[in-house]
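Hi everyone, sorry if this is the wrong subforum. Our group has a chain we'd like a structural model of before ordering constructs, and none of us has done structure prediction before. Sequence below.
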Amino acid sequence: MNDMEATNPIINFARVALISMNGESSEERQLADKVTSNNDEQLPPLAFLKEYLGGWPEEKTSITIISDPKRDEPGWDGAVRRAVGVIDENGAGVLSLAPHLADPLLERLGKDKIFKDEVGEVARHLGAREFFGVFRWSTSINSFDDIGQWIDANDESVPDWLKPFGHEVLVAFDDDHNYIGGVGIKYHLEHGREIAVVVDERAARRQVARRLVSKAALAILDGGNVPIYLHAESNVASARVAEAVGFKDRGWRIIGMNFE
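Answer:
Right subforum, don't worry. Here is the predicted structure as tokens:
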């Protein structure tokens, strides 16, 4: 199994919002702590969840293990992610596995439903190590001053980290045309649109990250999809950006597995 297969399920958490905690002013931190989504009762992106995971259960008490052939197919970046899951604030949701993993596991367990505290045991059965990240979405995005321009990902002015996203990417430059930040959108099948942002630490005081994320999220909404924002639970800076833009932490989590 190659390194790409062992990466996080949808995103590379380490590359999301690379903002130094020392790069934001105290005023910006206070603002980020205060700003939340304008709509706490938003419906989850069900079309994406059903399409990407292979289903979404109506009952809300446990995690349903689903055998899904899509787990053997390349993702947005060409990598294969054979185990991925999403759970809501109650720990209910879906763990989607490639058939060659799911079928013998289901036979061994004798059931297709588990609880959150059993995910680690399931991972060990599969020879993997589980991890969780924060799963956010929003249909109520806070607006900021406009920034950046949409550029073809293959353009020579686009930094290397953005090129794998393809399509158009959102890039911000300073007055001397030096790169200060960018956003790539990960296209997960028909409905999944996930935002990844990286900014120069020197640009944090200009709110570059939240301005870029807001602009990208609004563009996704205009296209008829729900923007998704994921990050590691330890990435406090990324969490602050998400909250400022309107991506509330509703207690939902992404599940991934690293295979040895």
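For your construct planning: Confidence is low (pLDDT under 50) at residues 1-9, 11-39. Residues 46-135 form one domain.
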